[in-house]
Amino acid sequence: MRVVLGLRRAACALAVPFAFAVACRAPARTDAAEPSSAPRALPPAVAVPPTASVAPAEPAPALLASDLAESAGVIPASAATERRTYVVAAIGDSLTDYRSQGGKFLRQLEARCPESRFDNYGKGGDMVNQMRKRLERDVLAAPPAAYTHLIVFGGVNDLYSDLTAGRTVAKIARDLTAMYDDAHQHAMKVVALTVAPWGGFKKYFTEKRGATTLELNRWIIDQESTKKAEFVVDTYPLLSCGEPQKLCDAFFEPFHDGLHFGPGAHDKIAQALFEKVFSDCR
Predict the structure, then answer these.
(1) CB neighbour list of residue 246: distance below 8 Å, 6 or more residues apart
(2) What is the pairing mode between strands 189-193 and 149-153?
C-alpha cells in the first residue's frame, strides 16, 4: 500500500496539464463534517440593510415656468429666459398726458419693466376721433420704434360732448375700431381701457351721460371676446368705491373735480395692466 501511494505522489509531481493536477488531489477525509447547503449569514458588521438595494427615489420633475405662470397668473421672476422686452405706445386724453399730470400708470410700468419702453402720446382734451388722427400721424406714419402694443384710453371727452360735437356711442366705437385695426395692421396688440368713473364731474355729468358711459364700456369690454382688442382693462369698477359712477374719495386728490384722479388710481391701473399684459416684462 505504501508503494502504491508513493508511486501516485511521484506521478502527480511530474504531471503538467491542469487536468492531471485536479485528478491528483488527495482524497477527502471521510471523517470531516459535511458543509451545510444553507447560505451563510453575513457578519453583522457587513450586513446589508434592507433598504440598501432600493434605488433612490427619482426627484419630482421641476415645474416649467409656463406651468407656474398658468397656475398663478404671472410669470415667475426666475424665468429670465422667458421674459420679454415690450415697446408700447399709449394714446389718450388728459388722463394719459404727462403735461396734465396724467399717465402716472405708465411711469409705474416703466419702473417695473426697466428694459421695456412706454411712449406717451396722450393729449389733454382730445376726443377719440382726434386720437385717431394723431395715431396715424405721430405713431404709425413714422414710428420711432417697432411697437409691440398700443394702449388706448379715451372716450370721456366724447361722452360729455354729445351735444356740442354730436358724439354718440356709435361714432366713438367707429373711431376706436379704426385705431384697433390700424394697430393690428402694424403688428401691434391692442390694450383697451374702459372709461373711468366720472360721475363726480358735476359740471358735465348727467344720468343720460352716465348711461351712455356704461353702453360704451360694455362695447369696449366686448372687443376682447371678438379679438378686436387682445386685452381689456375695465377701469370703471377698478376705481370706484361703493358708488359705481364715482371715483373713490381717496382718488380725488389733487384735482377734486371728479374726473381726473390722483396717484392711487394710477397705481391701480398700472397693477391691472402689469398683471394682465406685462407681467413677463424685462
Answers:
(1) 197, 198, 199, 200, 240, 258
(2) parallel
- Provide the residue count of the chain: 282
DSSP string, 99-157: GGT--HHHHHHHHH-TTSEEEE---TT--HHHHHHHIIIIIISS-SS--SEEEEE--HH
Q: How far apart, in Å, are the Cα atoms of 68 and each of 72, 76, 274?
A: 6, 7, 17
Quick check: pTM over 0.85?
A: no
Q: Are strands 117-120 and 189-193 parallel, antiparallel or unpaired?
A: unpaired
Distance, in Å, from the CA atom of 161 to the CA atom of 127, rounded to the nearest integer, reads 9
Q: In what order do the strands lie in the sheet with 117-120?
A: 117-120, 87-92, 149-153, 189-193, 231-233
With beta carbons less than 8 A apart as the criterion, state whether 102 and 122 touch.
Answer: yes
Burial class (CB in 10 A: 0-12, 13-18, 19+), 52: exposed
Map residue 238 onto helix, strand or coil. helix
Contact 204, 165 (CB under 8 A): no
Task: Give me the mean pLDDT over the 205-221 stretch.
Answer: 98
Q: Which three cell numbers stand for residue 173?
A: 366705437
* Cis preceding linkage at 254, omega within 30: yes
Q: What value does the CA radius of gyration of the chain take, rounded to a whole number of Å?
A: 41
Task: Please indicate whether residue 72 or residue 151 has the higher confidence score (pLDDT).
Answer: 151
How many CB atoms are located within 10 Å of the residue 199 CB?
19
Neighbour tally for 2: CB within 10 Å: 6
pLDDT, tens only, 6-49: 434 433 343 334 333 333 344 444 343 343 344 444 444 444 44
> Which residues are paired to 120 by β-bridges?
90
CA 100, CA 39: separation in Å to the nearest integer? 93
- Alpha-carbon torsion 223, 225, 226, 227, what sign? positive
